[in-house]
Amino acid sequence: MIYGEIIKKERIKRGLSQEELGKILGVTKVSVCGYEKGTRTPTLDIFIRLSDALELTPNQLLGREIMAVAEGETAYEFPITGQERALIQMSRTNDNFRLKMQKELNTYKK
């Protein structure tokens, strides 16, 4: 499950062990390991605690929204959905799709 990968990535990013995150959540290291592997599903209460502990929105934790960083002189973050992420990925790997999108965008700029 995607949220397991996100939990693990964000836990490591914050320098927390599974045991430390478990203490914050009020669960065991084994539970945290299960959440990360996708073999356990956190209760709603634990899910909310995870969201708070990892400083993520519920949508980010579920993989439905990620923070994108804009390039250029002014760096800022903004959320994108999983569907938007899929469109970006498709535009990177499919030349025909990318050309159609660029043509469509140009019609809106006028």
Give a description of the structure.
With 110 residues, the protein is mostly helical. It folds into two domains: 2-61, lambda repressor-like DNA-binding domains (434 Repressor (Amino-terminal Domain), Orthogonal Bundle), CATH 1.10.260; 65-109, no CATH class. 64% of the residues lie in helices and 9% in strands. It contains seven helices and two strands. The chain has helices at 2-13, 18-25, 29-37, 44-53, 58-61, 82-93, 95-109, and strands spanning 65-69, 77-81. The protein has a two-stranded antiparallel sheet. Strand 1 (65-69) and strand 2 (77-81) form a beta hairpin. Helix 1 (2-13) packs across helix 3, helix 2 (18-25) crosses helix 3 and helix 6 packs across helix 7 (95-109). The radius of gyration is 18 Å and the shape is elongated. The model has no long low-confidence stretch (mean pLDDT 84).
Features:
7 helices, mainly alpha, 110 residues, 434 Repressor (Amino-terminal Domain), two-stranded antiparallel ribbon
Tell me briefly what this model is.
With 110 residues, the chain is mostly helical. It has helices spanning 2-13, 18-25, 29-37, 44-53, 58-61, 82-93, 95-109, and strands at 65-69, 77-81.
CATH class of the largest domain: Mainly Alpha
The share of residues in extended strands comes to 5-15%
| CATH homologous superfamily (4th level) name of the largest domain | lambda repressor-like DNA-binding domains
Which radius of gyration do the C-alpha atoms yield?
A: 18 Å
Examine the coordinates and then state which fold CATH places here, giving the name of the CATH topology of the largest domain. Answer: 434 Repressor (Amino-terminal Domain)
> Total strand count, please?
2
| Residue runs with pLDDT of under 50 for 5 or more positions | none
**Inertia-based shape:** elongated
Order of helices and strands: HHHHHEEHH
Q: In whole angstroms, how far apart are the ends?
A: 42 Å
Estimated structural class? mainly alpha
Largest sheet: 2 strands, antiparallel
Average pLDDT for all residues: 84
Number of helices: 7
Number of domains: 2
Strand line-up of the largest beta sheet: 1-2
Q: What's the architecture of the largest domain, going by CATH?
A: Orthogonal Bundle
Q: Helix proportion of residues, in percent?
A: 55-70%
